[in-house]
Write the structure tokens for this entry.
Amino acid sequence: MGRALVALLMATSTRLAQGLVGEGAVSVARARRVAPLCAVAPPVQVAAADDPLFKLANEFIYEKSGFYSPYAADAFADDFVFRGPVIGPLNKADFLSTMDTFKVYKAFPDISPNAFGFAVDPAEPRRVWFFVRNTGTNTGPFGLGYGLEAPPSGSAVIGVPEAFSVTFDETERVKLLTVGYVADRFQGNTGGVGAAFGLLRVAGIPLPGGFLYRAVVALSNRLPGATAKTCSKREEVPAWWLEQSEARGPDGYNL
């Protein structure tokens, strides 16, 4: 009786295993019919090195942006928007005022974006993407607003690689500038932080965090005479941007 029961259990388990294997084989066969085992890579999309948009973007960043050099106001469209992962949206007037306050190019007189990897966005043919890796030495005062300045620290910055983009309108003026999207936070000496925040950290200028940051930002955006802002008033942000996004400030804050 015991041997017969053992034999019955063994036979049942064998048939069950065979059934599962068979069902698995059927599932694999079905999956193979649904999708190919490997996809064929499309041709690599590379714009010509002499694309005029590359020249415009390169000249703008190095010579007209207000960050690496004094700004050229005429290079910005009237409906210009600046956006970063923390700062923005800023309209033209608020962005230029903020650049006037910090004067990054004076705090780091030898600053360079070392821009590389220019590419035209296939979905937005007037948008140029590229990377920067900031270098420079803090030998000048860093503007803080209201006439305040942080003295030079003498520290040199080796930035993280950051993704930038410049979008031009039909008159070849800049309509959108995005900066500070860190590609590899483990490089450089900014603690994984990009854009002006990375430079401030290297210069030894402390920044508030969490709720304190939100309070300081909210206050600075509302103080009369404030020359540096983290985001423009909603009613002063160009309508085309608000159709795209209502978000303000860093993720989770919506200032």
